[in-house]
Every structure is written in C-alpha cells, then in structure tokens.
Amino acid sequence: MISSLSHPAMDCRVLVLNKHYMALRVISAKRAFSLLCRDLAEVIFCDDGYYANYDFQSWQELSRMKTLFKAVSQDWISTVNFDLAVPRIIRLLFYDRLPRQTVKFNRRNLFARDGNHCQYCGKKFPTSELSLDHVIPRRLGGKSTWDNIVCACTQCNVKKGGRTPQQAHMKLIQKPVKPKRNPVIHIHLNHERYQSWKQFLDHAYWSVELT
What we know:
By secondary structure, the chain is α+β, with helices and mostly antiparallel strands. It has six helices and nine strands, in the order ββαββαβββαββααα. The longest helix has 9 residues, at about 30-35.
C-alpha cells in the first residue's frame, strides 16, 4: 500500500480543495495518498496556469511521463513497480470538510510562530542558536503551553535565568498565544514546489483551515 510507505516525500504538504474547488486545508502527502487510494479524492495537476483532474490510476499513468514534471520542484515516491509523483493539490469528491485539527504544539511551530526571533531582544537567529524559554519558570509553576513558551537567544536566556521577565527586568516583545492556523504555512508558500497553490488560495487563503 502506498499509504504505509515510510519516505521523506510522504511529509510533503498537499493542498486540499472541496468539490467546488475551494481551499479547505493542508495535509501530508501520506494522508493525501490515502484519500486517493480510496477514491475519495482526485489529483489537480497545474501546468502554466491550467489544471487537469486525475484519479489515482490515471495519476500513476501520468507519473510515468516524467518529462511533464518540473524536476527541481517535483517529489517522487519510489515503489517496487513504479515511481509516483507526489501531488501538490487534491480535490475531495464525496464530502466537503475534513475533521478539524488543532495546531500541533511542537518546536517547529513555536519557532515558526515567533519567526525565529528572540522574544526578549527582538533579533533573528538560526534555529540552532535559539532555545525555548518558559516565561514563568517551571520551578514557579509555569507550564509548557503556547502562552508560556517563547523563543529566546542564548544570551537572553542566560540573563533571564530561572526568573520571570519582571524579576529579570526584561520585557517580552509580544504576548505568546496559540496560533489559529499553522504558522509554518508561510514557509511553504515561499517554496517553489508549492507555487501551484496560489491560484486556488488568493484572498480565500486567510480562511483556509491548515494542519
């Protein structure tokens, strides 16, 4: 089964449209293939501003014609019998919505929410040079939640120590909150492989449910 494969390309993001071609959310390629294999969705393939619809079988056939895909921006899943292009967009065939999912509380989303900026000095750093700081330290009852963890550079983290910002005479640039939508999506839209999303998002992008 395609959906059971473990492959880096399975983590690529796929835009989901409802049957009226309205953007709903973003899912993993693994989940997209699961929908395609069960005939619950079809692939929308964009090329030079035009798009065509393919069911799972015809998408396999199209994938054999690799010259149709832009090599730089295309990801592939290799199976025993064939190579399969990872779709960028799929369209649901029998229902309009997927179960609502909350934004995952993890390091990647925390760094993306804060834009890799230290929330005390305001400077931007590579992820490797940032840490996650508990605004209210754990020893004082602070919990690991969206509204109590921020990005902090090494220097600011050491300066703050095990104190609250008030105790350390430091001020947060902005109040930490839980994102309403996945903050990493902004990174995806800047990547060449996801350029085909734009014609389906435009102004409706802001109302799209993302995971």
